[in-house]
From TrEMBL:
InterPro entries on file: PTrfase/Anion_transptr, PTS_EIIA_type-2_dom, PTS_SugarTrans_NitroReg
PANTHER family from the UniProt entry: NITROGEN REGULATORY PROTEIN, PTS SYSTEM FRUCTOSE-LIKE EIIA COMPONENT-RELATED
Cited PROSITE patterns: PTS_EIIA_TYPE_2 (PS51094)
CDD domains tied to this protein: PTS_IIA_fru
PTS EIIA type-2 domain residues: 12-156
A Pfam family reported for this protein in Swiss-Prot or TrEMBL: PTS_EIIA_2
Protein name: PTS sugar transporter subunit IIA
Key words, A-Z: Sugar transport, Transport
Listed SUPFAM superfamilies: Phoshotransferase/anion transport protein (SSF55804)
Domain of life from the UniProt record: Bacteria
Length: 161
């Protein structure tokens, strides 16, 4: 599955959202709250509204994609400015059950907040493509340094055209 063409710069979105290590919490709500607290959110985004939207999405269908990764995201945009959208990579301190289809516990969350449905689909496509790459999954499994993760994302984006 190739990502959509001419989508947002995933590496830049990760720069905005950050790469966070040692996220703690008991259960999805506490873990997502801990992630949101680490992210420098745009002023227009209420952290409680973001948490509610992500939990509502999880209630519909878990966002785990297998191999220890989940991609929490709201169902609809909570911001309107594309300059405020972000992707945050959050490494959990402890493996957590996220109702994954492969039954593997989740170790990494990749949170997506986008400004439009079109951009959301493009970002989700790019992140999903990355998560299918063994080399990228290995970086996530190893809690690799942020520079290595961003370099891998940039290298992948160069191949997208």
């Amino acid at each position: 599955m190739a990502p959509l063409q001419a989508g947002p710069d995933i590496a830049e979105l990760i720069n905005r959202g950050g790469i966070h290590y040692g996220i703690t919490g008991s259960g999805e709500k506490e873990i997502l709250r801990s992630c949101i607290e680490k992210i420098h959110l745009p002023p227009s985004l209420d952290p409680e509204a973001l948490l509610r939207a992500m939990l509502e999405r999880e209630d519909l269908m878990p966002t785990s994609v297998g191999n220890g990764i989940a991609i929490p995201h709201p169902r609809s945009p909570l911001i309107s400015n594309p300059d405020e959208q972000f992707v945050a990579v959050c490494f959990l301190k402890e493996d957590t059950d996220w109702k994954a289809l492969d039954s593997k516990p989740v170790t990494t969350l990749i949170l997506i907040v986008s400004a439009s449905t079109k951009e959301h689909l493009q970002i989700l496509s790019g992140v999903s493509f990355l998560c299918q790459q063994e080399s990228f999954r290995r970086l996530l499994k190893d809690n690799a340094p942020g520079e290595e993760i961003l370099a891998a994302v940039r290298a992948a984006e160069e191949t997208w055209g």
